[in-house]
Amino acid sequence: MKVISLLWSHIWHRKTLSLLTISSVAITAALVVFLLLCSQGVEQGAEKGYGPFEVTIGAKGSASQLALNTYYRIGAPTGNIPITVLEDVRKNEFVESAYAMTTGDNYNGFPIVGMEPGYFLTRYGAGKQMAQGKLYGTLGETIVGSYVASSLGLHVGDTFAGAHGLIQGLEEAEGDGEDEEHHPAFIYTVVGILPPFHTSDDRAVFTTLDYAWAVHESQPNTAKEITAIVVKPKSLLGAQSIKTVFAQYNNVQAVYTSKAIADVVNVVDQGTQAVKFVTMICILLAAGSILLSLTAAVHERKRDVALLRLIGKSKYFIWLSLIGEGVILTLFGLVLGIAAGHIGGYVSRDVVFASTGLQIQAGAIVPGESILVIVTLVIAIVASIGPAIQAYRVDPLQLFRS
Fold first, then answer.
1. Using 50, 70 and 90 to split pLDDT, how confident is the model at 245?
2. What is the distance in angstroms between the CA of the first residue and the CA of the last residue of the chain?
3. 273-324 residue pLDDT tens
């Protein structure tokens, strides 16, 4: 009699309880895998989300808000600053390169960003410039991120009109009750499509810096303003000097980009800790499910164990038949759960990226998955030992005297 055949017959005999056990393990594993995928996306986004721009300059306010809006296109900007600040930044001896950015409009929910063209070369290098077309050069020309192009079906030569606000319906969300303000008189022309960068730039529309001044020309006498300046310093010591100098400007803040992003990641980590606590409860419930499943089987399997002992089966065979059931149920649950977690990550990746700019690499094996498998199997073995000892300690002759 093979152990696998014996275990399979036991599992199939109690298929309802076995299915519940597998389901509890699978749900727990899927939740853990999805959490690991999201955590990996946050870490990777924090690592390469801002490129070489170690200093960010913008209007006074929240440093995290400034960084999120500038590099991840999330939330509203902290305000605008005079364009004269850009001139002063470029004169600073510690600045290697600096580029201004303007925001305020959107196209079908994707932000329209005015950005000086040199930004792309500095951030991504000469090897990854354009997938199609050319870089914009005159007012009204745009290039679109790869995600925007695929989502909206945009091609080189297409035209469109933008709308006021960072996202569609922003005014209604803020409660002013007015319809979204469109700019039908100002037409953009797509002249290029960016390659996939796997950053938030994939979900943005880029155009010349002066688009905001041209679109909102209702106040022609107003001084030209920009939303933010991204700065690549010559050195880390230079970054400190740049921050110190421009933090003294009126209504201007200069922040270390890495620190601002780290603050956001820390907040996310605090939320992740709460999710991990819930996950641990799920793991304990899954272990309890295995324990209950095997405990329920002890009474009906006492005679089987006694018979195996009487016919001379080895202690190894008997213990394997007792503990193996919990291990097999756990393995089934793990396989299904890990697959479900990756499938969930794949299905939700576009939604997560569209709303947060974070990439979920659903096809990648997350380092924590191996720990998940080992810990879960150990829990299954531990949960199986108690019922196994209870069944093995029964006197085999006593079971056949009645």
1. very high
2. 27
3. 666 677 677 777 777 777 776 666 666 666 666 666 666 666 666 667 767 7
Q: At CA 359, angle to CA 358 and CA 360, rounded to 5?
A: 120
Average pLDDT of the chain, as a whole number: 79
Residues 61, 75: Cα–Cα separation, whole Å? 13
Q: Are 55 and 67 in contact (CB under 8 A)?
A: no
Residue 95 CB: number of other CB atoms within 10 A?
A: 20
* Number of C-beta neighbours around residue 131 at 10 A: 14
Report the candidate in 249, 228, 231 with the shortest Cα–Cα distance to residue 240: 231
pLDDT digits (tens, 9 = 90+) for 257-274: 988 888 877 766 665 666
**How many CA within 13 A on the CB side of residue 390?**
14
Closest CA to 57 of 77, 29, 76: 77
Cβ 334 vs Cβ 283: under 8 Å: no
Structure tokens at 353: 């990226």
Half-sphere exposure of 32 (CA within 13 A, CB side): 30
Q: Cα dist. 368→243, 251, 322 in Å?
A: 38, 45, 29
State yes or no: pLDDT of 166 exceeds 60: no
The CB density around residue 316, as the number of other CB atoms within 10 Å, is: 9
Beta-strand relationship, 252-256 and 228-233: unpaired
3-state SS class at 312? coil
Helix residue ranges, H only, 14-48: 15-48
Asked if 341 and 29 touch (Cβ cutoff 8 Å), the reply is yes
Please tell me the pTM assigned to this model: 0.69
- CA torsion, ordered 39, 42, 47, 50, to nearest 10 deg: 180
The kind and range of the H/E element at 379 are helix 368-392
- What pLDDT is attached to residue 367? 77
Q: How confident is the model at residue 38 (pLDDT cuts 50, 70, 90)?
A: confident
> Do 324 and 386 form a contact (C-beta atoms < 8 A)?
no
- How many residues appear in the chain? 402
Which are the contacts of 345, defined by CB distance < 8 A and separation ≥ 6?
33, 34, 37, 38, 360, 361, 362
